[in-house]
Amino acid sequence: MIESLSAIAAARLGPLAETTPTTSTVKPGDFASALAEGANNMADQIAQADKTSMAALSGQAGPREVAETVMTAEQSLQTAIAVRDKLVNAFLDISRMQI
C-alpha cells in the first residue's frame, strides 16, 4: 500500500518529486531571478515536506521530522503569498496613478 501511495505522490508531483535544494544564483539587482529562486525554494520545501510525510507513512520518519518539514513548507508558502499580495498591491497602485 505504501508503494502505491508513493507512486501516486510521485505522479502528482512530477519533476518536483526528485528535487533537491539549490544554491543561490541570484545576481545583484536582478529582481526576476530573485523571485524565481524564491519560488523554486518554496517548491523544494513543499516537495521535501511531502517526501517526509510519505516516509512517515512507511515508518522511516518520525512525527517530529514531519512537523518540522511541514511547518517550514507552510512558512515558505505564507511568505510567497505575502510577496504576491505586495506585488498585486503595487501593480494596483501604479495602475491608479494619473498620467
Automatic annotation (TrEMBL):
Record's keyword annotation contains Amino-acid biosynthesis: no
Record has Endoplasmic reticulum as a keyword: no
Sample GO molecular function, one term: cytoskeletal motor activity
GO BP annotation list: bacterial-type flagellum-dependent cell motility
Top-level taxonomic group: Bacteria
Compartment(s) where it occurs, according to its Swiss-Prot or TrEMBL record: Bacterial flagellum basal body
Entry keywords, A to Z: Bacterial flagellum, Cell projection, Cilium, Flagellum
Major subcellular site: other
GO cellular component, one term: bacterial-type flagellum basal body
InterPro entries for this protein: FliE
UniProt similarity note: Belongs to the FliE family.
Name of the molecule in the record: Flagellar hook-basal body complex protein FliE
Organism: Notoacmeibacter ruber
